[in-house]
Amino acid sequence: MMVAGTALGIAYGDWRKSIAFGAGFPAGCLLAIVWPRLVLGLVIQNSPARALLSPQLRIRLMRVFLAGCALASAALALIISFHTGQFVALTLGIAAFLLLSALTIRYKALLFNVIVVTFFTAQILDVPWRAILGNPLVLTLLTLLLFAFGSLVARLLIQNGGDAHAAFQARLLKHPLMLATMAAANQQLRLGRIEAARLRRHCARRAPASTMLGYLLGPSYQWLQLPLVAIGGAGALWLALRYALPPGAISKNLSFMITCWSVGLSMLAPLTHLFFLDTSFQTKRNEQILLRLAPAIPQGSGLNRAFANTLMRRFLASWTVALLSATVVLTLHEASLDGLAVIVSGAVLLLPLAALPLQNYADARAAKPSSRLALSIIAIVALACVMGVLTQKYEAPWLLLIGVYGAASVLLIHRRWLAMVAAPVAFPVGRMTQRRARGTGTVSK
Fold first, then answer.
1. Which of 29-43, 286-300, 330-344 has the lowest mean pLDDT?
2. Does residue 154 lie within any of the structural domains?
3. Where are the bilayer-spanning segments (predicted)?
4. Is residue 109 in some structural domain?
């Protein structure tokens, strides 16, 4: 998103727009996604290592957090002195969303889209933001309210964060259906109860290993939330504005911004899938869950093959959802065929990500296999596309380049898949067997 925004700004000949669209807007989106997990990971002790923080350390971390809020308030006061009301309003909006999402993590995607829809609607209806936010009294009140809200969040997290989370983890470990409880208690998903019911049904029917491996990777609905919210929000906003406002009231720039925002959210689905996949791999208790629920899982290459196929199906499903959601958004916005071609090309550029999870999980120190030819082709084509956009030479054979890029991506994925299937020890049983062998002094395959 940063590279595409910067290239568009340069193509239109305005370096200010290139900085705003290429760096500021995507950086704010990325920060809004990362900040809640960072705060919750430090304070509520939801880190991958499951480390317990002492109360003194929690208080110190929250003091650092409050110091950051104070510095942000000082920076806002400095910005106010330069009379840049719109920038202050945008900064206050992003900061308020970050703090609010840290407290209500369950509804962060909905809140983020509500803020964006409100901002776009206010721009269309020509709300006098400059006159309202140009008043120093209004800016001062907003800054004080923001700092007070940050203090409230910090107080709640200090009092109830670490101890409550540790007690919840202790109860979770003692539960006979630990994975079902985890799925049902997942505060980020509305479909947790459905996932738990499916798990109980599959356990009763002695489902095969390929089905149980899906539960090892966690619920499959997490990467569906973002593109569905993007489709619903963009479609509802566009249809409402189209029928509520007179023809010609929606400018081309605003239409372009809404389209880019919706498509960008949709294409984040594969990245969200990989993020949750990495989080699942860092939780070692899932190995015990898999052995408890599916004791007859295959060994060696059989488990590797089933696990690799499950990984590929999950990624291709998220990739397909991203492509379809982006296509639906552009169709609602009555985009041209060139816009659809750009979306398809962007989806092809994400294909090499499917090779990232395919590796030998039994040995973390093992070299990750790759194809030098495929990586070289991918790098050359990506560089050629970037240079073509920057130099505004659009006569390049884009269809041929995308085809070569896709073929190289498939070659890389096939290479990694073969290496994972041929691994001597399978994940996760092999890692447990190696750990047990080191503890007893025996060697088992």
1. 29-43
2. yes
3. 20-40, 61-80, 86-103, 110-131, 137-158, 223-244, 256-277, 315-333, 339-361, 373-390, 396-413
4. yes
Does residue 442 fall inside a structural domain? no
Nearest to 193 by CA among 211, 179, 180, 175: 180
Tell whether 259 is covered by a domain.
no
How many beta carbons lie within 10 A of that of residue 408, not counting itself? 22
Domain interval for residue 124? 1-174
Question: How many domains is the chain partitioned into structurally?
Answer: 1
* Residues 119-131 pLDDT 10s: 555 555 555 655 6
Q: SS3 for 294?
A: coil
pLDDT digits (tens, 9 = 90+) for 191-220: 445 556 676 777 777 776 666 666 666 555
- pLDDT on residue 67: 54
Distances (CA, A) of 441 to 38, 118, 432, 436: 40, 64, 14, 8
Query: Closest Cα partner for 223 from 276, 286, 278?
Result: 276
Mean of per-residue pLDDT scores for the chain = 59
Q: List, as own/partner pairs, every contact residues 225-228 make where C-beta atoms lie below 8 angstroms and the sequence separation is at least 24, other chains included.
A: 225/109, 225/188, 225/189, 226/109, 226/265, 226/266, 226/268, 226/269, 226/272, 227/265, 227/266, 227/268, 227/269, 227/321, 227/322, 227/325, 227/326, 228/325
